[in-house]
């Protein structure tokens, strides 16, 4: 029986996947499911994995999890269509002054339609916008969301350039042939009427759009951020808006200063807030957690290597260890007396992961002595027996 602790509101499309060998409880959990709550790990716990129903994991102490052998899962792509649609919508909102025009009407106090129509005809020129067809869009980050934004914008007859020096082969193949690859970020933003950013928040992307990059933006251009607030330097954005370099900033990550700025359009972190997105994320992360707890397979982890192996027997062992020399041979040496029917080893950065299937012919080969000998190997972080 595995115990799952749930933070936030997780859709039933995910929770319903946990059948009779699982229970939802706060007591000594094997796994945590979370959306936006900040996770603090207790000093002593039985936690084996954390599943984030979404893409960003800045609310999870990933480094600490890695050091303790805890796998952190996310759901890249599960909410990508929702964020893509919100980004595309923002292109129209920023170019057509739709929000300010609607707010203007809400502020009126008139007694009849004749008076209203007179005001409308006199005032509508104040909200004149531009069309996005034929305009230049620069996309920073061509992962699942950025790729979809680029393709959709291209289909709307925008001229699209994309910048991502680390683009995956799969996303490169999925890009429209009309999306031009950009090798120089500064040149791309200089030529763009609109720039949208889609990168995860990590140490290397903090304040990715800073004062230096903003100084290269095309005067009057629009910056759209449905990624994370921290990937954009807020001080630099406000200064660029005040100086007239940046024409407008559209963001899903508000602050008091941004809300009060006349050139900023803020939303309350709703980019991925659709019924479909929440269901997709919940179902995906539940499947990832279940497969890991029951079979030891790892898919969509931010801190562990992808590692999957079809079960060849009912006796499976998994070993998490530091990615240092001579680990595989030490582990194999402890298993020398067993009939290994399948074994795989994968590594990622400082972590290595092993799956071992043993032909036990009805017996249980992984006794306490063997498990303790594996745990005693310097560099081993966690050993699990999966029946």
Using brief descriptors, characterize the structure shown.
387 residues, alpha/beta, Rossmann fold, Alpha-Beta Plaits, 3 domains, seven-stranded parallel beta sheet, five-stranded parallel beta sheet, 14 helices, 16 strands
What would you say about this model in short?
With 387 residues, the protein is α/β, with parallel strands linked by helices.
Q: Which term fits the overall shape?
A: elongated
The low-confidence parts are none
How many distinct folded domains? 3
The CATH topology name of the largest domain reads Rossmann fold
Specify the CATH class of the largest domain: Alpha Beta
Share of helix among residues?
A: 25-40%
N-C termini distance: 12 Å
What portion of residues belong to β-strands? 15-25%
Strands side by side in the biggest sheet: 8-7-6-9-10-11-12
C-alpha-based Rg, rounded: 26 Å
Q: Give the class from helix and strand content and strand pairing.
A: alpha/beta
> What integer is the average pLDDT?
94
